[in-house]
From TrEMBL:
rRNA-binding as UniProt keyword: no
Enzyme nomenclature, EC number: 4.2.1.1
Originating species: Penicillium brasilianum
InterPro entries in alphabetical order: Carbonic_anhydrase (IPR001765), Carbonic_anhydrase_CS (IPR015892), Carbonic_anhydrase_sf (IPR036874)
SUPFAM superfamilies: beta-carbonic anhydrase, cab
Protein name: Carbonic anhydrase
Binding sites annotated in the UniProt record for Zn(2+): 44, 46, 100, 103
Reactions that this protein is recorded to catalyse: hydrogencarbonate + H(+) = CO2 + H2O
Length: 212
């Protein structure tokens, strides 16, 4: 019988802490005095998608918000507070929205089963599916799901770049916004082309940037 993962995790924590302290002697004392992450990561809660591990980075490098299917609701206070704190106060250099293959939330949005509290949560994803239904219906089921993963990342990026605090940071200090897809079957990240035209950027600034 395999060891309970919670029990194993507590046991291994001491080994991990000791090894990390040996390899990076200043890390934990530095983190005890505060954090200066360069990356805000907006990803999925899926247990296979641990951002610090897949990036090969250390504690303190990535500020994180994760939820079911990496969906960003425009009025969601949780993700909104994380984004504002990371951009305005921590002054991260990069904002990343990361989706992944074999996403259960995407699979649910591709289906028609009632899911209780998950139904209102998945609504933005179903709306993305509706807007792109003709394209998705031309694809085999697995390819359609992968396409919806990408479309969902792009939709969440739209939500991010409609926030005044993000637009201000892009304009004033060069904040960069990225879209990634994590390939669960290989462990490899794929970067999407998310560059916007000058016309799109100007329109967003006019429509969404506010002043104090």
């Amino acid at each position: 019988m395999s060891e309970d993962k919670y029990v194993a995790g507590l046991r291994k924590n001491k080994d991990w802490a000791a090894q990390t302290a040996r390899e990076h002697p200043d890390l934990f004392p530095t983190l005890a005095n505060g954090q200066q992450p360069q990356i805000l990561w907006l990803g999925c809660s899926d247990s296979r998608c641990a951002e610090t591990s897949m990036l090969g980075l250390l504690p303190g490098d990535v500020f994180v918000h994760r939820n079911i299917a990496n969906i960003l609701h425009p009025g969601d206070l949780s993700s909104g507070a994380v984004i504002e704190y990371a951009v305005k106060h921590l002054r991260v250099k990069h904002v990343v929205v990361c989706g992944h293959t074999s996403c259960g939330g995407v699979a649910a949005a591709m289906g028609s089963k009632q899911l209780g509290i998950l139904d209102p949560w998945l609504l933005p994803l179903r709306q993305v599916r509706e807007r792109n239904l003709a394209t998705l219906q031309k694809l085999p089921a697995d390819e359609a799901a992968e396409k919806l993963v990408e479309l969902n990342v792009r939709e969440s990026l739209n939500v991010v770049t409609q926030k005044s605090v993000v637009l201000e940071a892009i304009q004033e200090r060069g904040l960069q916004v990225h879209g990634l897809i994590y390939e669960v079957g290989s462990g490899v990240l794929r970067e999407l082309d998310t560059s916007d035209s000058d016309e799109t950027i100007k329109a967003r600034l006019v429509a969404f940037k506010t002043e104090a």
